[in-house]
Amino acid sequence: STPTIAVIGGDGIGPEVTREAVKALTAVAGGDAFSFVDYDLGAERWKRTGEVMPDSVLAELDGADAILFGAVGAAPGDTTMPSGILERGLILRIRFAFDHYVNLRPSRLYSGVPTPLASSVTDRGEIDFVVVREGTEGLYCGNGGVVRTGTVHEIATEVSVNTAFGVERVVRDAFERATRRRNKVTLVHKHNVLVNAGRLWSRVFDEVAADYPQVQTDYLHVDAATIFLATDPARFDVVVTDNLFGDILTDLAAAVTGGIGLAASGNVNPARTHPSMFEPVHGSAPDIAGQQKADPTAAILSAALLLEHLGRQAEAARVTEAVTADIESRTAAPRTTTEIGDAIATRIAGA
Amino acid sequence: STPTIAVIGGDGIGPEVTREAVKALTAVAGGDAFSFVDYDLGAERWKRTGEVMPDSVLAELDGADAILFGAVGAAPGDTTMPSGILERGLILRIRFAFDHYVNLRPSRLYSGVPTPLASSVTDRGEIDFVVVREGTEGLYCGNGGVVRTGTVHEIATEVSVNTAFGVERVVRDAFERATRRRNKVTLVHKHNVLVNAGRLWSRVFDEVAADYPQVQTDYLHVDAATIFLATDPARFDVVVTDNLFGDILTDLAAAVTGGIGLAASGNVNPARTHPSMFEPVHGSAPDIAGQQKADPTAAILSAALLLEHLGRQAEAARVTEAVTADIESRTAAPRTTTEIGDAIATRIAGA
Ligand SMILES: CC(C)[C@H](C(=O)O)[C@@H](O)C(=O)O
Ligand SMILES: CC(C)[C@H](C(=O)O)[C@@H](O)C(=O)O
């Protein structure tokens, strides 16, 4: 039967870039390969209806084979929407409800792509790594609280929750991936300060590593990891880290490899008990929304990750190759969102 | 009476670089200006005696006018020392006991200094900003715990504690500093996910901002802040943020402005109820310890921050100017730690 892909375009540039990702999927697999179902979610819906994610919609999404997500966020200057409503009510709701414990974020510096790094850094070696960010624990749990809210005596807490179960499964995923890459895993944490969580992550990391004697291991404090991302990103192959450190490191990783316009991600449930979700790392960029200025490449590469997850490796490779060819043939001439999407779709069809 | 400066050289390159900082202080203020008292603390002492920081030593340090700190850390490959022992027992013990709520970390890209950033980035403007990192709260409190330690059911938590009292005083310090600089303060947090702490930080930030109408304000999520540090660091003037975000951002800030060999810091108690502590951002770098390979510049710039804190602005300026002149006249020829320290001391004396 035809796999169903739930499409959440969202707000801002989300719908524009998602349209091009759907175009790429259609180009590679044919017009009837997937059944795409659009979902109207995001700031606009919240403003209209007060709803972020009705339970019935979540249940419907759960029936899809995969989710393609654009971006969500309020319009610029809109102060009616409390911070976190969409993030926690929608993105994180899906990640947690569908147990997306592997938040996969590949980074690769394509040749010819402008990077903020000096050539003394980019000349050190090929930059091609993947961050395996834990997606269902840590500071993202929403644990914590507030007392004496709004007073000079206010105390606000945030609790990072880490379990052996949760750490083990994501660390094992990272090692598995490393065996299909360059056999190196770097654990990033801050175990000299966060000793409770740090000891757990280190212990589990060492235990899993023992099962992969061919994989070289490495540890960096998160602060030191940011230094290496700026000075020697070629040293990384697979990085495994917690939810918040992964959030921070992957934006920096995207920046040094040509910007979040190119950074794809997968919120993956490797056990396949729920659908996985694929989304560009960038946000809704409301300032350029509707102007055909957004680069759909990150969304299209996210669609390639979706294909891979569905076991359609050959199609995934064709999309990735078309994107690579498009990126490497870029000139200074500006192109619209649709033009980039069309060019990639044409390459896919021609391949 | 002669101010007392407690000197904690520590381990690895700590003593080497601290020696040059003391040399600079002596050069600028004369041999009798300060009474330096050495403290033997760090991994070596712990190995010898099992002591990290006896209460009596902490009490003695409390009597000093300021503390000059090098770095602490175990020798490479030393696995006898549990992670966090020195960090929490010594550095963080002092920061918390002496209420160092302003962790001050200036970043400046000196002309001619090698940076990992492309000239397309460094050409955007002068890079000169300061991160005001909260130093007594957040995830550094040591709150949290472990249950079912060492089992497959282990749960480890870390609690970030944020108080209106603690946030207000550091945010106010940041605004005060901005009025003496370029009148811009950027709050960095992650209030879309860490909504409890985020709301508190945002509320207090807005309240304090209302007292400084001449200061321009800005907000960035921590992940986005790393992007701007890599792509447009010239946009920053004063950045205020919590303890962990500040830790991460300042290592990256150091990396993009020429490396942690140049990054100074002050752990400041502006209320002066206890001595403040000044330390290079870098660690003990045991791999190059004792080889005269370390750059003492960060330690010397930390000494300049110490002078400023003690109200000796003219001397602080002379040290900073000597360091600037030294940095800007560097050639590719390698110099030893002592040679760099001597060159700077000579410039100070000649000024
Ligand atoms: C929007 C936000 C909740 C999200 C996160 O923090 O995970 C985003 O920054 C990301 O990296 O996907
Ligand atoms: C050594 C460690 C405890 C410390 C910190 O995390 O604050 C260091 O990284 C720093 O930035 O001063």
UniProtKB/TrEMBL annotation, chains A, B:
The keyword Protein biosynthesis appears for this protein: no
Care to name a GO molecular-function term for this sequence? NAD binding
Q: Which UniProt keywords apply?
A: Manganese, Metal-binding, NAD, Oxidoreductase
Q: Which InterPro entries match?
A: ICDH/IPMDH (IPR050501), IsoCit/isopropylmalate_DH_CS (IPR019818), IsoPropMal-DH-like_dom (IPR024084)
Domain Isopropylmalate dehydrogenase-like, first and last residues per copy: 4-344
Instruction: Tell me which PROSITE patterns the record gives.
Output: IDH_IMDH (PS00470)
- SMART domains given in the database record: Iso_dh (SM01329)
SUPFAM superfamilies in alphabetical order: Isocitrate/Isopropylmalate dehydrogenase-like
Q: Where are the transmembrane segments?
A: none
Q: Which cofactor does it need?
A: Mn(2+); Mg(2+)
NCBIfam families found in the cross-reference section? PRK03437.1
What PANTHER family does the annotation carry?
D-MALATE DEHYDROGENASE [DECARBOXYLATING]
Its protein name is 3-isopropylmalate dehydrogenase
